[in-house]
Write a structure and sequence with these properties.
The protein is mainly α. The chain has helices at residues 6-25, 33-49, 59-77. It is elongated, with a radius of gyration of 13 Å.
Length: 80
């Protein structure tokens, strides 16, 4: 099992912030400018997580983890 990278910690921290905001803001969550900024940042971090890098996990592992993040965090990024 691999240990979590700095990118994993960043993604989880942003997700936690968004989750807290979703609880606090309720229906206003989807219209809040700060939330939209954090969502864009989270989408960017998830996207770059899967990008190639010499010091990153092999592609198949990054692809699986990227898909997992997109699935697990979809409720924070896109309205149903």
């Amino acid at each position: 099992m691999t240990t979590a990278s700095a990118s994993d910690h960043d993604i989880r921290a942003l997700a936690d912030r968004l989750s807290d905001l979703r609880d606090a803001l309720g229906d206003d969550y989807w219209n809040d400018r700060g939330v939209r900024t954090l969502q864009a940042e989270l989408r960017g971090k998830i996207g770059t997580y899967g990008a190639w890098g010499a010091d990153k996990l092999p592609m198949h592992q990054r692809s699986r983890m990227t898909a997992r993040y997109e699935s697990e965090l979809a409720h924070l990024l896109w309205p149903r």
